[in-house]
Amino acid sequence: MRAAFVLLCLLALVVTACDTPVSRPLEPESVVQPHPAPGSVRAATNVQHAEDTPAAVTVSAPAGPKKLRVFVASEGPYSGGTGEVWVLEGDGTTGFEVVKKIPQGGWPHNVSISPDGRYVAVAQRSSNQVSIIDPHEMKEIARFPVGKTPHGITWSPDSRWIFTAHERDHFIGKTEVGTWKMTPLVVGVPQHVTVMDPLRPTELWFTLTNTTALDHLRMYDLETHKITSVKVGDVHDVYFTPDFSELWSSSSGFLEKPSDRMVIYDPLTRSVKETIRFPGRYPFHGMKANRDGQYFLPDKSIMLISSHWSAEKGMQGASLMWVDWKSRKVVGDTPLGRHVFHMTYDPLGDRVLATSNIDGMVNVIDVKTRQVVQKVPVPKAHGIVAIGIY
């Protein structure tokens, strides 16, 4: 009898539940990415559901990287560097220290990290090779031949291809990741650097060097294999603004021939928008997506541009320029060594690391104060990239 009574009660509950609709608020969706977005390290996120009373449910996002690992090319050994890639580490609370030196095959110059963080590529100018480093194991895992005097290195946004510019060859190298087999993209002129917009992965922009050809900025379409030329001369480096709405290029590229000129382009119409000047400065390199690291300044109104120095030409001391790219104005200068080259961003300490070649330093700069807080000696420091280590 007792069992029958319990069964009847259960049936009554089921009928009541089916007849009476229950209304409850939808829970907010929680999308958690495995890694922090470039340029930021996420803190733990507190999410309170509508039906949580009185206590809230706390959802913790994955922690950011525990430390930053930085790879710096020490040019040489013929130019006074060590011919190695130096590895620096920092955790955002203290200074950076050298933890390893990775031998290279010949004059490491520019360094580039894949967007997925799996590989670091190093252009070896004197041996016409590219070295591939595993940034987690901190060792070279591959080395392959390319064209003459490799310089700029850009990864495709999906990390499947490496594009190598050559200062003394007529093709851009397109190398497949994993097999490390190169296909030449014939452009007919020697090149200096390459750059890509991650949302336009078929457009490979490149600048010309060591040539009398006209139109020093061009775009290679990876689908049609057609080349579009922009009517402009005297182009050195080229880089996108933080929102990828514009391309900016510096001029000259020769240390003994400084230029304060920069040209600004519309990448959609592939045309010059305007030419500006930074009097007393020699703008040189800027930060690039698909090359200089996993992280970039959170403040997208600011472009970082290195500036060289020339006493003979009346240029002021070399610095890292903080440029408001929309107003076309320099809003800050961080004085550094004689010649400033490349830079990368540290999200853990909100710092920028910039190389100065002549005095052989990696300069660690606080973003808030724009002041140098540490100098790490690296002989003939040139290319630099950073990766987060979890």
Tell me what you see in this structure.
It is a single chain. This protein is mainly β and 390 residues long. It has one domain: Methylamine Dehydrogenase, Chain H (7 Propeller). It is built from one helix and 30 strands. A hairpin with a 4-residue loop joins strand 27 and strand 28 (361-366). It is globular.
Q: Structural class from helices and strands? A: mainly beta
Q: How many separate domains make up the residues?
A: 1
Q: What is the helix fraction of residues, given as a range?
A: under 10%
CATH class assignment: Mainly Beta
Write out the CATH superfamily name.
YVTN repeat-like/Quinoprotein amine dehydrogenase
Q: Which strand-content bin applies to the residues?
A: 35-45%
Number of strands: 30
Q: In angstroms, what is the radius of gyration?
A: 26 Å
Largest sheet report: 4 strands, antiparallel
* CATH fold title: Methylamine Dehydrogenase, Chain H
What's the shape? globular
Average residue-wise pLDDT: 86
Which stretches are low in confidence, meaning pLDDT under 50 for 5 or more residues running? 1-62
N-to-C span: 63 Å
CATH architecture, by name, is: 7 Propeller
* DSSP helical segment count: 1
